[in-house]
Structures are given as C-alpha cells and as structure tokens.
Amino acid sequence: MSRSPFTIRDAWRQRRQERSLFFWSFLSILAGYLLVTAHKTGNLPLHWQNSLPLLVYLVAMPILHLILVLIKFRGDPLLPAAVFFLAGLGMLIQFRLGTFAIPVPGKPATYVFPAAFALMLAVTVCFRGGRFRLLEPLAFPCALLAAILMGAILFLGQRYRGALFMPGYTNPAELIKILLIIFLAGTLARWRKEGAGAPRGFLPWVPLLVGWAAPMGMLLLQRDLGMLVLLNAVLLVLLVAATGRVSYLTLGFLGAGALGVAIFIFSAHGQARFAAWLAPFVDPTGKSWQILQSLSALYAGGLWGVGLGSGSPRLIPIASSDFIYAVIGEEMGYAGCGIVLAGYLLLFTRGYRIAGTSPDPFGRLLAAGIVTTMAFQVLLNIGGVIKALPLTGITLPFISHGGSSLVTACIGIGLLLALSEPDTGAAKTAGSPTLRKGKPKRSAGPRLISPAGKK
Amino acid sequence: MHQALNSLLTLVFFLFCFWTLALGFRYSRAAAPAKPAAGTGLRRLLRCVVLLFVAFFLYQATWQLAGFSRPAFMDFMRKYSRRPVNPANEMIRGRILDRNGIELALSARPDPLLRRYPRGRSFCHLVGYADPMFGLSGLEAADNTFLNGSTLASRDELGRFGMNILNRRKAEGNALGLTLDARLQETAVALLRGRPGAVVAIQPQDGSLLVLASAPAFNPESLDASLFNEGIKRASPLLNRATQGVYPAGSVIKIMVAACAMENGFADLLDCPPEGYTPPGPRHRPIRDHEYYEYQRRGQAWPGWGRIGLEKGFARSSNVFFAQLGVRLGSQRLNRAAERFLFNQPLTLFEGSSGAIAVRQSAWPVVRPEDPGSLAQQSIGQGALLVTPLHMALVAAAIAYGGRPYAPRLAMRTPPRLLDAIMDPGVAEKLKQLMREAVEHGTGQGANLKDLPIAGKTGTAQVPDGADHSWFVCLAPVERPALAIAVIIEHGGYGAAAALPVATGLVKEAKKLGLLEAKPEPSPERDGPGKNILNPHPEFQGTSGFVPRI
Q: What are the beta bridge partners of residue B103?
C-alpha cells in the first residue's frame, strides 16, 4: 500500500476501467437509441422531448465519472459501470415503452435517474473511508424507523393493483429494505463481537426478533407478500453468514413452508396467484392471463428477439414495471435477457467481492445484505415473469419504472461504493485497495466474519 | 433499405452490449481478488446466486426457445395471441408420409393452421386429423410432439430441434414415415366401394402394414359437428374398423381350430350328416351347413358330406365338422390355442411420442368344460367370439411366416420385432396347404387366379341385425408369401361373394406394383424377446384407437 498521498491523477488512472466501460455502455445505449428511433415505434409520436430523459442520462454518465475522479474516490470502479450499463438498458426500454412521453423539461420525472445517481453519490461521499461504521449504532433506530414508515403507509396509503402506495404512487416501503439491512447487519455484528458464532440461549435473539417482528407484521397486514419473502430470505442468508450455521436454512425453509400454507389458506389474493402459477392453463383468460401473456411475449421473442422497437409491449400487462423483463425478452430475445442477467451477475460478483474485502463484521454483513437483497429481488421478479415462481409484484432494480425502487437501489449501491473504499480515517486496518493485485485475505473458519480478536 | 439498417443497428447494439460485458468480466477477473475472499462463506453465497440465475435462465429457455414443445401453451397462443403475427403459427407441423414418400398429411406457410390431407378419405381413420376446432385424433394425436418437432429421441430430431430454435421462422416439425403403401391403400378403398368394412394387408417378412383401410370414411379437411353427433348412430364413419371394429369371426376361426387339431395330432374322420350336429346338453339347436338351407330353398334334400377329414372339412368350411371337432378337442385345448393366437390380449400398432395406436382386443370368451354348446358355437366363429380384421390379418401373416409373426408395425422408425410363435412351423405349412386347397377346390375358388397362387379362407358370420358379414383371409403368393390380407365387408353375404373379390383385386394390384416379388429377408434376432406390446390403458381406445400417454 502506497504511503504517498492519493492524487487526482492517481484517481484518474485508477478509474480507467470505469471510463472504458462507461464509454462502451454509452455506445451500446446510443446504438439502442438509434434502433428505437429508426423504428418510429408504432403509434408513438416521436418528439424530441421523449428522448430528453435518455439524453440527460447519457450526459450524466461522464459527469458522474468526473466527479468520482475529482473527489479522489478509491472505491470499486466496476460497480458504477455495471449499474450504469443496467440502468442504461432500463432507460432504453422505458424510452421505447413511451414511459417518458412528452415530459416538459421542467417536470421532475425527467430527472429521476440523474437525481437518483446524485443521491447515490451523496451516500457514497457521506459514508466513504470507513465512515459507514457510523451506521452501526443506528441499527435499532433503523428498525424503529422502518416500523414507523410501515405504520404510516398502513394508515395513509391507497390500494393500487393490490399493493399500498403513498400519495403520488410513491412506495416508501422500498426504503425499509435498506433500513432493515442496516438493522440486521448491526445486530448480527454485535453477536459476533460478544462471542463466537451463534448465540447461546434465547436472550441475544430478543433484540433481533423485536426489531424484525414489527415491520414484518405490518408487511403481512399490507399483504405485501413479495417484500415479506424477500426480506426473510435475506434474513436467513445473513443469519447463516454471520453464524456459519447452515441449519438455520432448514429452519427457514420450514418456516417459509408453514407461512406459505398459512397464506394459501387465509389470503385469497395469495391463493389466486399461487393457483395461476401452478396450473396456468386452467384459467388462461382469468387468473393466469398475465403470466401467459408474459410467456407469450417471451416466446414471440425467441432467440434474437423481434428487434428493439418492433415488439408488442402493449399486450404485456404492467409492461413498464413488473413485467419489464418480458418486454426485454420479446424485443431483445433470449440473447438480450442473457445480456441483462450477465450485467446483474457482474454487479453481484463485485458486490460480494466488496463484502469479502471489508475489514469488519458490520461492513461485511451490510454489503452482503445489500447485494443479497438485490440478487433475490432480481430472482423474484424474473422468476415471476418466466413462471419459475409465483408473481410477487417485486420490481427489477434499475430497469423497472418506479422512482422509489430506483432510489432505494441507488442508496444501496451508494453504500456499497462507500464500503468498497479502503479506510482512510480512524481505523488503520485498511484492506488492500480494491484493484491492487494480491492474495485474497484468508480468515479463520468457514464464516463470513473472522473472529474479532484475530486482526 | 430500412430493414437492412435495422438489422445492422441490431447487430451493432448486440455487439456493443456483449463487448461491454466481456470487458467488464475481464476487468473483474483481473482485479484481485476476483472472487470474494476464501473462507468467508461469501464465495459459496455467490456461487449459489450464480447457480440460481443459471437455473432460471435455463428454465426460461423451455418457454422462450422451446415453447413449441408445450402443446397447451401453443393452444393458448393460437386462441388468444393478439400479436400481428401469431408466434404459435411459426412452427409448421411435420408431414405424414407413406413408405414411398407420398404425402398423407401436410401443413404449409402462409397458413400453417390449415392441415391438408391430399389423400383425405383413404387415410382419415389412421392418420386422423389436426383441427383447430376439433382437436387431434389418430396418428396426429399419437405422435403429436414428434410432429411438432419437440422430441429429442434421435439425432435427426435433435438436429431439427436445434435448427427450429435457431430459426423459428423456418421451423418445421419432424416428418412421420409410415409403412403403408398409399397406392395399395387407395386400391383397397376403391374396392370396398364405400361398403362398411375394412381391409388389412401385412407384409409377413417384417410386419409392415401396407394397407389399413376402413369404410365408410369422412373428409378430414372438412370436419363438422354433425359427424360427431350422428356418426355413432349411423354408419360410424369415425370408427377405424380395421383396428377398432370387432366382428364375429365366422369360418375364419376354423384356421385356429384346425391348427389346434393338427397340433394335437387329430387325424380322424368325422360324420357330417345333413341334419347337422347338436352339441350334447339341454336346449341346443342343431348346427348345420349352409348347403342344407340352400337345398331346402330349392325344395331338395341335401345328402350331407358323409365321413370327412380335416382337409375336406376345411376346404368346404363345414360347420358340422368343425363344431364336432371343437367339442372333440375340448375347451381346455381350444382355450389354450386362443391364448396362443393372441386372443384377449392387448396389441399396440404404434408407440408415438404422445400416445399410442392400439388395436382393440379380440375376445375369446373362455369356455368352461361343461358348456359344449358355446364350444361348438365358438369353433365355427359364432357365439360370443369377436375379432378385429387386423388380428385376422396377423394370423394370416403368422401362417405365411412359419407360425411366428412379426408385430404389426406402422411407422418406418419402429424396428421389426418378432412376437411369440402362435403355431408350430409344420402346422403353419400344413395350414397354408389347407388354405390353398380351399381356394383350389373349396369355398374360395373365386380367388383361384391363373398365375398367382393364393391361399385363403372364406368366412360368413351370422349377425342378428341383417345379412351375414363377409370375410376373406388370404396370403399370396403361396410359395413365398409377401402379403397377408384380411377383408371384412359388413352384411356382405357369403365370404366368397363380397370380401373375396376385394382381396383378389388387392393381390392383383400388389403384383402390378411389384410388391409380391421376393425380397431379401431382414435378419432380425429371431430368438429375441417375442413379447407382446402391452397397452396399459385398453379403456382409452376411442374410435381411432388413440391411447393418450398418461
């Protein structure tokens, strides 16, 4: 590790890969943009203002890169690149769907993406250089905040498509993902510090259960099954990661099974979705209409797709958010779906790598939690669209239309970026800089967190 | 121009995307450590996530790329797709061909839903139909997945499957090649002249079915609901009489009784008086020969046959002789013979990718020893005995091939397979001579062609609802049989009158087509397992014999 001060020139050199990927992403999206406009996508008047959000986005990319260089950011350069590639594809599809139809330049919707990235940058700057540890003592307040947020939605929200939304169709429930991951990471990291692996006795479980039960109960009341499944799956993964006990998974599966049965018995909504999933051809024009339309779109796309701009996304239900993957499948084909999935895998690989190099338990759990949440979110969404899982109404991060989802995902990525930067402040136990070649750090046991004293 | 620009831009877009990702993964690999640190459990977690992604992606392919292998899904899209070009119709259903490549069923762009049957009525029962409104039947149903190009059993199928995935716009299902000879089949249909009945012709050397004709027929290209509503009550045009029609066997069963007698060394003469034979026991009516009634109609008295042996009894098809013979042989021997002759056993013609074509079981009600009346009746092919035309053709094929027949096969891709011997080779040879004698000097003299020696057996089966059913079972040429035929014409009268000319006409046509010339025999494992193909679901046979795979 170099002792000399890290200059802007160093940062410019270190972020070369990011620059190169930004460049190629830019070209990809530009090609896609030309493709869509060359098509004069059916029945959509081509107005320059339609393209405004996309153009703003394309301009925002180099600016963000320059800012990262200017603040001498030393974190992972591939993570922002992967995000930009995925979000760019998302913008492209949304543009093609006409989601941005004639926005006035002053309308906030135009700037959702730049704003979200600004937020991401702000989060990164706030918590970079080891300052993410400030969040550790805030674990319980985060759970409290999540509970309050959920309560507010429960009382003030309006139902739309079976889910609760706040005025303006914002969905602050998305934010509780971040809040609860912080809570989980904080609580579980404390277990680690207090002793080895799994807690002895019931007492250490109490704060976890209390903090977890309130938001979960309210999610159940809201009938937001997708979020419930997602968060509990993350809880399980983090429990196993923190304690090294795989038996929790078995326990979790049993719990999930019991919950599934309970939902099946008590919730007509859940029951309908489950039935539509298991036997789609029993009621093809009723309950299974959505999933069959989505599968038809995929089939129509085939291997190479019908071409960006020449599909029939109007026939796909909720095309711009829940079923965006079906639109991609129709227009870009199986190959295009592969591209999207590969983009996500790049993101997750980097994410878990950041988690692995983080020097303390809290950082590791936080990073692992964020990445796992995002990965499961992608799996739940795609699984629903391809009929591998029942429909859950979970969005596809960065690609689905939806401000709350985007903002949440960007905050998560902002935290990850902050975590990826080696410590410059208080703690001097910095790991190797992200892209320095070297041997992977080995910790003791098969656990996520090495015993606290072994530094 | 626009199209070219479009393709070019698509290509560029994909290339850039691939390149971006490839670069990203390369950078990621180069950056150390490329994977999360060992021992943190994160590596395993990442591996799990990647595995899940791969699994989902593969599952997606079963819908997106190979969705055509899901019939319910295709049906859904055919019905409800609102896309300008219905994606379900991109796949063209495979053709059905006869042994010479003549098309029996085909679909073509630009209207892939329209299934055409160029030889419509001649093959309607066996080939069936694939209709958007009425569904599938016959071979169209039994080999549906194969025809739709979604089976992976052979290398050809695998290759086609791959090509169909790569280029869906030119996708086509697999072609099903049958052993039938379209020209011969059409001759058979013409010879039937629309009279309800059936013709079956088998090549004894490998069990290939050359003709499987049934009348009356329907037009598979223009189905309408009335066919299904009234068909049952009337002449049942939907019924494949060759495989699903069960009839009293009449004198044709005497082949089996004679075989049983020879196998048991029976060589006695039996007295056949004009007034007939009355089986022992209460309330039995005498069994008489039809000559008795003919003489009676003319006001004369028939002198009877006197004491005759098996040869004359068979050639003259004497009921009096065979009723006595059956009773002499006894129920045990005949029951055993019937079992050997494949009675009461399921038989499958074709094992397809989505089901099978089964033959209806011929019924030989097991006779108890204390019931000589039934035994006498069944020995002359009456009573509760019922057979299918295909079964009788199979018996003829067995006689033609040394007593051990090949399982009847319908598809070229089904390899020939021997069944268990149904009689001893010596008995088969003797039976052949008996049948030749019946043609030369007996009831089947109409089939005594000059340069084409046929061996055959007529049959006249009494039925309660009208004139007798007319049977003729034969093989030709005698020295080296290349064709085994069974013909039935419902209510056709004497076997020699209606069914026999159909069979001789067919043999003549076969000779003209060169089908009777000696061919090198296939060399199958003659001692291979001669097990019967079991149809596990006999209750599922519809009019076409289609048995769904469950």
A: B97
